[in-house]
Design goal:
The chain is of the alpha+beta class. About 30% of the residues lie in helices and about 20% in strands. The protein has helices spanning about 45-55, 65-75, 85-95, and strands at about 15, 20, 30-35, 40-45, 80. Strand 2 (about 20) and strand 3 form a beta hairpin. It is globular, with a radius of gyration of 13 Å.
Length: about 100
């Protein structure tokens, strides 16, 4: 299985609006809910741990998932290049509509 190069993740972090919901009946999976995109996805605990490790742009301590998974996490809003301040401004703009 191909893994993404850490350089490809430079400048990305887990969105401040990612909500992690442990699934009691499936301990090897986590439900991700994104606060402003409305996305929700069931992922492996490894993917959830990766996102938890990307809460800053300093680098993940958990190996990155496949390039396809990274692309999906970005598309769904869980992984972002926005700073916390930029995300907050975006949400404020959405709320003002």
């Amino acid at each position: 299985m191909d893994r993404i190069d850490d350089a490809d993740l430079h400048g990305t972090r887990s969105s401040s609006y990612t909500i992690f919901v442990p699934l009691e009946d499936r301990p090897d999976e986590t439900l991700l809910v994104h606060g402003y995109s409305g996305a929700y996805d069931r992922v492996s605990t490894e993917v959830a741990d990766f996102l938890r490790g990307k809460e800053s742009t300093d680098g993940a301590t958990v190996p990155a998932p496949t390039p396809e998974t990274i692309a999906r996490l970005k598309r769904r809003g869980y992984l972002t290049g926005r700073t916390p301040e930029q995300e907050s401004a975006l949400v404020a703009g959405l709320a003002a509509r």
